[in-house]
Amino acid sequence: MSENAQETRIADALIQVTRLVERVFAEVGRHCELTPQQAQLLCLLTDGPIGMTDLSRLLNLEKSSLTGLVDRVERRGLVARHRDTCDRRAWHVALTEEGQRAGAETHDLVNARLEALAEDLPASDRDQVAAALVHLLAAHRRTTAD
Amino acid sequence: MSENAQETRIADALIQVTRLVERVFAEVGRHCELTPQQAQLLCLLTDGPIGMTDLSRLLNLEKSSLTGLVDRVERRGLVARHRDTCDRRAWHVALTEEGQRAGAETHDLVNARLEALAEDLPASDRDQVAAALVHLLAAHRRTTAD
DNA sequence: TATTGTTATACTCTATAACTATA
DNA sequence: TATAGTTATAGAGTATAACAATA
């Protein structure tokens, strides 16, 4: 019974954290003149080019939805599509020079905001949350890998 | 340096958790024939009626955006607007009888999915994550209260 | 005057279905 | 046949600005 209450608290906390992160992306995005979705896309691409199929999986988007999102950001000159050298059907999405700047700024601001929240925690807690969240994500991956 | 890496891991983990929760709402919503946003709204309302201003704060939405969201769900007969007895400008949004069913099902499914992830954690970790997340959220509230 | 909520408008976001090109 | 990505379409979601009604 008390165990159940514990679990409910986790679900609630996860949902609230989600709204917090969404808000951070919205606010940082607005500061950079990006929609939340565009901000997320640019953040992902700061690690390097990603193929459309991988992107749609990472962002939980149908391929056609991603096409539109990439179109709009490409129209603004922030990303470019490059043909895959091995598979002529596939494309990689990469940041342009201007996109690098916007992406880096967005990425840094988002991380700074999220890290600032964690900074408030005792160092031991910080490690534990990170580890536990990673554990949680791994649990999900195992579930969906079925 | 290693501390910084730790913090970065938290930010990344929070972002990935966010995408996971978004996905859960999308999948559960689809199962209930609701959009992710409608599913979230109905989940919130399972605790009882909420005023428009409070809802817009809880969902991070401009008032006008919320008006549209509530309109669409009201058109489907899942919620109804009721005048505030004290303030004639204000309205409360409440689930209809049909909305109760949809909201309860959505709420239960979402919580079950999220709790299932946590179940995989050792009980001690579970408590710690919940506590730490709550701490994180409190840190944010303190920040925005300025 | 300030607050609550709506309307009007113009986008962006998104999924579904049908399609093209390549593997 | 299967996969990578696009196009067409329709609707949902969202913010901004201007507004109405009430406090």
From TrEMBL, chains A, B:
Keywords in alphabetical order: DNA-binding
Gene Ontology BP annotations: response to stress
Domain HTH marR-type: 7-138
Gene Ontology molecular function: DNA binding; DNA-binding transcription factor activity
Signal peptide extent: none
Entry-linked Pfam families: MarR
Gene3D superfamilies: Winged helix-like DNA-binding domain superfamily/Winged helix DNA-binding domain
Record-linked InterPro entries: HTH_MarR-typ, MarR/SlyA-like, WH-like_DNA-bd_sf, WH_DNA-bd_sf
Annotated SUPFAM superfamilies: Winged helix' DNA-binding domain
Protein name (database record): DNA-binding MarR family transcriptional regulator
Organism: Murinocardiopsis flavida
